[in-house]
Amino acid sequence: MEGWSRKVYLALPVPSEEDHRPLQERLLAALEDSGPFRLERAAYIRLTPASLQNAQEICEAGSWRVTAVLCFDGYGWELLRLEPGNTAGKHYGLCVDLGSTTIVMELADLNTGEILAQESIFNPQINWGEDILSRIFYTKDRPEHRKRLQKATAEGLQSLMETLKEKTEIDTFSCPVLIVAGNTAMIHFLLGLDAFGVFQTPYAVQTLAPEPCKGTELGLSFDGFVYCCPGMANYLGGDIISGMLATGLADQEEICVFLDVGTNGELVVGNRDFLLAGAGAAGPALEGGVVHTGMRAKKGAVDQVTVENGKLKAHVIGGGEAKGICGSGIVDLIAELFLNGFLDLRGQFQEEVKGVVRLPGREEDETENAVEYAPGLYFYQSDITEFLKTKAAAMTMVEYMMNLIGLTMEDVGRFYVAGAFGTHIDKEAAVTIGLYPDIDREKLLSPGNASLRGAEKLLLDRRLMDKAKDIIGRMQYVQFGAVEDFLHLMVAATAIPHTDLNQFPSVVKKLEERRKKS
User: Per the confidence metrics, is the pTM higher than 0.85?
Assistant: First the structure.
């Protein structure tokens, strides 16, 4: 592993009348003669005044047997501190997926590459808006608001470091490295930068490849270096580039598709020969947002739905009473409603089918059809309409990109669906409603939190930063918002599974089999 930090054990010569070199010179000579640096003839090693402040006391306390902790600053190596004795065996680092909704952090053993623990929290930025756009407008032309969001982000990271420290009894605040993967807006908020360029044309953002900085510069009780995975564009950030590192898509021989669906949809199509990337609005419906009784995938959420004897049967995460429905449950529900004749191709309820109800109660609800998918919980016509718009946006991105390069789904060797949504969704249900293409199911892959997986790899091998930059340099970017006929293409994809049923032969077969049985 070629990491971002090094812990080097040094047996320093004790100062004497014959050898009265300054401590800085003594340390530098010992480091240059040590194994890791001896091989690097022109190794740049910097000993700052801050790193020398307690060095004398530490050397004396360790009988001049010390461990030097160094970090790569982007150009060479900087001494962070000295530790008494030989602590080279205790070398740890952190990586984080800085999501707009959730922040996930991992602690890794940098000697072995083992992931020791993982923790997550809701992003504290949510207090200033559930969606990124609300946060961008909150900070627009308001430096004090930017500072507020930056502080909240740092406090979120600090909280995770404290939790991991309690969980593992490892001092996470002494870790020399923190790798961050996040979208362009999240990185701007972390660094206290104006993020309005993410939203406003010509999309000239403050940075896509931030230089390394100290954790203390961001308000963390952490003197190590923070490294951010670089991004490609305003809507295609370091989280997607990190996903490229995780999947190895850019090195594949076969054509691959990488789709990350959330509030925004990010897409990469290509292989080792070419990379075409794009991004655009998708919508929170895929994560359970927008719909009346939607919620995230946690205890109390309906995550699976089936139809048994003409009635809906729901599975609840954690058991007990259902409180709402999450993204995977919505996909199941719509697929079952469609296959069993509750919905037509347009996603409209069939009123003559038994089981479709009108929700009694408020007057405004009397005009909207719904189904009761769990006791007291209803899924409305407007919920279905909103969800189908969202899935149409996601799949139109894929369809447009494939048409642009003159390929069809038959040419795809691997179709990655990243994120928690892709991990938990049922493939058959997703194909049924047209959210996934109708291809060999073994080609439909769920890499999970690809952003975090890529950050793990980057944490263990700094050479992958050059790989990330190479991927960005090879990418051609499409701004879907600027595609003139994009909305027209979406109309076709709004149907279940699509207006062109020839693209979904397995769904047609399922419908025919169900008709024969009925």
Answer: yes
